[in-house]
Amino acid sequence: MRRKVLEQRIQILLIFATVIFTVLRFLLNEKGRTNPDSIRFMRTANVFPVIDNTTTPMGYPLSLKFFTLLGMDEFWASKTIGILAYLFIIYFAWKKKFYLKETILIGGLFSFVSIFSYTMSESLILPFLFIFLFVARQIIIGELKGFKAFLYLSLSLLVLYNIRYPALFIMGGVFLFGIWNYRKHYGRTFIFSGLVGFAFVVLYKFLFIDYFNEKYVDQFLEIGLHPTSKLLVELFQGLATTFNPFIHIANPAGGIINYGIYSIGFLNILLIVFLFIKSRLSETEKFSVFTGVTGIICSFFIQYFYSVNPIDYRLMAPFSFPIWLVYFKKMYQIFGKPTYGITVLSLITGFVFTWLSKGNYLENRREITKFLKSEKLEKGRINFYMENEEQLDRMQIAELISTVNPNVKVTFVPKDTLQTNTLTKYKVLRKIKIDENKYQ
Question: Is residue 318 packed enough to be buried (19+ CB in 10 Å), middle (13-18) or exposed (0-12)?
């Protein structure tokens, strides 16, 4: 009984520490943990019901819009969603007795704290992914059957796709898992749900994407974008940081520290593979691992013809999450409570990294708010001029501006600078000073 009480206290402390660190993670960042995609998300939410962006589903922007109806702006709505997403996963795991220890362990990893503190759709997809895994488990063990099982699984897939397009890979995983287990009682349910998902993707393309952007396919599909040699290196680096429980970001400048980061991640991957091979996985665990691996493989091959960012911890989150669940379950079965030490060390490492690279978002927000008011640009469309996408110092200013006025669009057209609502780095920094940190 004492041991159980002690473990419960450890879990409560880890949950509390994770929430506090999530808040610090974006407050101690100069631009509040945003990136170029964050600009699009917040702008899409701000201008809705006008649709000016089809490169992402509407699930996350509409979630931001919902919270703005409660009095928040889009930036604070995104942070609320991140924290609520984490707390929902923990609550659902506790309520359903489904991977509670594992979700507490995963949620406190530095990489997942970074996701929940980000203004990105990965924070929203994770709780729905967790529900999806639970539904799949109920079907596999026979708790959900017939039409109800088919309906719940299909709806889960559609919700995931309406948050992030890579959910298409999860649909593929469900379909293939059904084919693989065709003779089992749940095989057909998985196959038909996967087919429903594929049908929805086709209809979504013709009825939504083509309606608002008929050139979408021409803009984003291009055969032979990257050579295999480059993609394989990026795959290794991406997976080594994704499955590094302590540091998920390599030093962009290179250096010997990256060898340590990649080595820890690679050794952890080898340990994951060893544990999965040595221990007998249940049907539910096999499905979780199969879904994660399928998503990673598809994410690699789609880079040959679809323009996406290199594989990293953020893009892999929906696919690494189910693998982490099974991994920590096996680790706990072997080591017991000392397994919590991994998460504790990850939180400590993350806090040290965040503190050493700290900026001051709230101060920067005050400065940029004052500037926009002086320029009468606190509302309405703002164009931010850059010569190219590689000018990261300029993009950071655009990201910061979008946290105050989300109706920001980056432009690369020089003549746009003649317009009064177009800002440049020079126009901003000649009037205010922005607190900057070293690491992003």
Answer: buried
Coil, strand or helix at 165: coil
Predicted structure pTM score: 0.94
User: In the chain, what are the domain boundaries?
Assistant: 2-356, 361-429
Average pLDDT over residues 194-215: 88
* Crossing angle for the helix pair 361-374 and 2-27, to the nearest 10 degrees: 30
Specify whether the CB–CB gap between 289 and 326 falls below 8 A: yes
Q: How far is CA 19 from the centre of its chain?
A: 17
User: CB under 8 Å to 344, separation ≥6 — which residues?
Assistant: 14, 108
- pLDDT, greater one: 21 or 414: 21
**Span 296-320, pLDDT tens digits:** 999 999 988 877 888 999 999 999 9
Does position 261 have pLDDT exceeding 70, yes or no?
Answer: yes
Tell me the H-state helices in 336-391: 340-356, 361-374
Distance CA 43, CA 75 (A): 10
Rounded-to-integer distance, Cα 181 and Cα 189, Å: 10
Spatial separation of the C-alpha atoms in residues 126 and 115, rounded to whole Å:
10
Beta-bridge partners for 409: 383
CA distance 294 to 176: 9
pLDDT per residue as tens digits for the range 332-342: 999 999 999 99
